[in-house]
Amino acid sequence: MDHVPAVILGLCSYTHDSAAALLVDGELVGFVEEERLSQKKHTHEYPHLAVEWLLGEARLTPGDVDAVAYNFQPARYLAETPAALRLALSTTTRDRALPRAAGFAKVALRTRRRVQSLDRLFPGAQVSPVLHHRAHQLAAFAASGWNESAVLVVDSLGERQTTTIAHGHHAGHPTTRTLEAIYDPASLGYVYGAVTEHLGWRRGDEEGTVMALAALGDATRFRHLLARAVRTTATGFALDPAYFPPRVLISGYPRTSHRFVVETCPPRRPDEPLQEVHQDLAAALQERTEQVMLHLARRARLLTGSRRLCLGGGVATNCVSIGRIIEAGIFDEVFVPPAPGDAGTALGAAVAVHSDSDSGNGRPLCGVARACYLGPSYPEPNLDLTPWPGLQQKTLDIEVAEFLADQLAHGMIVGLFQGRVEAGPRALGNRSILASPLEPGVVERLNAGVKFREPFRPFAPMVLADRAGEYFTLGQDAPYMSMASGVTDKAREHIPAVIHANGTSRLQTVSPAQNPFVHDVLRAFARRTGVPVLINTSLNVKGKPICGTPDMALGCLADSGLDALLLEGRWITK
Known about the structure:
single chain, 574 residues, alpha/beta, 5-stranded mixed beta sheet, 18 helices
């Protein structure tokens, strides 16, 4: 670029999980997922509410934007066309060769049109398409705040890449160098999505449900099938097309083969009851995913020589796999950013454009490292309760953390809405539902009456960081609830409600620096009960996004079994 862009807008748009991030002179103004404002979960629409908020926050107009960083490069899809035609050489994949080539060419064209539409929206800006995996790498590495680390990205598909191992360095600004890449059709995210769909859940949304279900099954039944279907190689892994036919980017092509169905079970309809075979298939899928992730982590250690690992991509949200990597002791420390999925590439793409253009210009990146509360806040909300006649509010003039801890200790289930919206798929204490893990039947009550979701879904504990070791064996901080940890005997005795069937908990450690209010609540709860642990789940119901706005939170209170909502110091009850 001829001049250094002072205002860089990063976008994830038109695919799924639309989001936007804004850097001004290298400083992060904010990042937010469009669904938190539009109430449309996993929306693929242009994130106009997110962009509007970011520009308003920085007191800028669209005309002030110097660069737009987009999270895909159209031309990269075209390279798949000749590669796809090679599939015609094998009888197993012959029927997919032409449609696959056509599908990748079509997406290249569509992505180019999307980039051109951004040109029209921001006529004064240079639109820079960023390689998808590079955006993932930088989203993870920049958020870690480390000077150097291995970076492993595993997702479904970015242009043609599905897995990359890179080395991250901080030389004035964060950079990553890709050392090894695995290309589609070898894709771990594709396999997990395909089996999620086969088991009757929504691909790209409910993989976490399958991970939870896996704990109830026995992997033995389908272990050999999954090992054949997803084969590890010296440098990574490969898929057997006899089970998972090559992806075609045009609808109507199933992701699992007839042979897969014959050797496992018929596809389950969402309303069908769950059977043992479904649990066993989920268990084998999860076990294989963990094995491949461990294999890739060891490869990353070998290639980079680094003692630290950052992970990104959709598969990095598989917290049980992350826990296994930590347990294996391959690295001294493991980091997953708060938004490892595609939404986070809006931020990663902005960082990429900043790093490319700022060499030597002395505008260091700031506000990205270890930050997770990055979206809008509503400090003085003007609450109009008329749409919800059953709700009433009072302003608390007492010590709020003490009051909330007291309500939780007495068994109330409370929504908490405070400060800026969290980045990523997990509520981290600013848009959360909190409950006491000591209440009998609390998990059943939360699943059935508050969240309206499957009874086998576990709930995550948040714990004071300096007391985590009493209950959890992870041995490192887990500020973004992205890692599953083993538990101690003390946890089994006192807080069985937060332990899943596989003996792990998806943990969030809370320090006073990270979230002072939630830290105070945990301390106050510990004084009353002796236990510095609360159940923390996201402020939403199944199928809806986390509540980003006060109105969304009030709707959640009115339409669910929540007892109360603490919204910026207002206590709202039914």
